[in-house]
Design a protein that fits this description.
elongated; Immunoglobulin-like
Length: 290
């Protein structure tokens, strides 16, 4: 039994940190000697382990990042034996999460644009924990056009659509959606072609459509509530990012098989023309035959 009584502050503002070590020598062939670190009132001049995250500042969603904490160290030379990762902030509507957090690396899935924050606490071989290191990332879309769809229930299936000019819903090749995810638009290779990068068939989203370098024209954006899977009415939210900036956000309550005309992107003006019409019943539910 070890009794350790560090000095006690006499006032609220008084800082009396204290630290020391207790070394036990024995005939144990595996652990001799054993050193016990004693800390009181913050430890005074004791040097704690230092958690370090190699932090990317502006990743582009959707993507999976591998965060690296291998530069973490103990200034006293003790081994770092535990890495505790936590996701402390993420954008509203994101379902991103940390994975593979058992060692000095962790994977973070960035599903939508916005701010994410991850913390890392490391522990040395004597059980002494570091202060948390913080990595804050602003996920910014790298495509010139990036449109996100989210909703507030967990079973419904909503679909994001983007039309080329005056095209009709579900008309190939001019409606990019779940049944036409990578159409060929324009004539300058793939840079002006839209991509449905995420199609969420049962959840709260997100879905997103991107164009790296759009051709001049207008791009109407629509939402189709394909199936409720028992969820009933949902609130859908669409966010428009142009050149990486959030230009417009719209929300609507929708029922099964309704279409919502959200807004139209005009290019190269890089503006969103407001529509935000009342949802109406869909007469078509899948793409036309090729």
């Amino acid at each position: 039994l070890i009794t350790y009584s560090p000095p006690v502050p006499q006032t609220v503002d008084e800082e009396i940190g204290d630290n020391g070590t207790f070394v036990i020598y024995s005939d144990d062939p595996d652990e001799n000697p054993v050193t016990i670190t004693l800390l009181g009132n913050g430890g005074g001049d004791f040097e704690y382990p230092d958690a370090i995250i190699d932090c990317p500042e502006e990743p582009s969603p959707p993507t999976t990042l591998t965060l690296d904490g291998s530069d973490s160290y103990d200034p006293n030379g003790y081994a770092i034996v535990d890495y505790e990762w936590s996701l402390t902030d993420l954008p509203v509507g994101s379902t991103g999460e940390l994975e593979d957090t058992a060692d000095n690396h962790a994977d973070l899935y960035l599903d939508i644009a916005g701010d994410y924050e991850v913390q890392l606490v490391v522990t040395n071989e004597f059980g002494v924990r570091s202060a948390p290191a913080t990595c804050r990332m602003d996920a910014i879309p790298e495509d010139d056009i990036h449109v996100e769809l989210l909703w507030d229930t967990h079973q419904a299936d909503l679909d994001l659509h983007m039309l080329n000019g005056d095209a009709e819903m579900f008309q190939r090749p001019d409606d990019v959606c779940w049944c036409n995810p990578h159409p060929d638009w324009g004539s300058s290779g793939s840079a002006d072609d839209p991509r449905l990068d995420i199609d969420d068939i049962a959840g709260s989203g997100p879905e997103n459509i991107n164009i790296t370098t759009p051709a001049d024209g207008e791009y109407p954006v629509r939402v189709h509530y394909f199936d409720d899977n028992g969820d009933g009415a949902v609130t859908a939210t669409v966010r428009f990012y142009l050149y990486g900036n959030l230009e417009a956000t719209y929300s609507r309550v929708m029922d099964r098989n309704e279409i919502w005309e959200v807004g139209t992107i005009r290019w190269p003006d890089a503006v969103v023309i407001d529509e935000d019409n009342e949802p109406y019943p869909a007469s078509v539910r899948t793409c036309n035959a090729d």
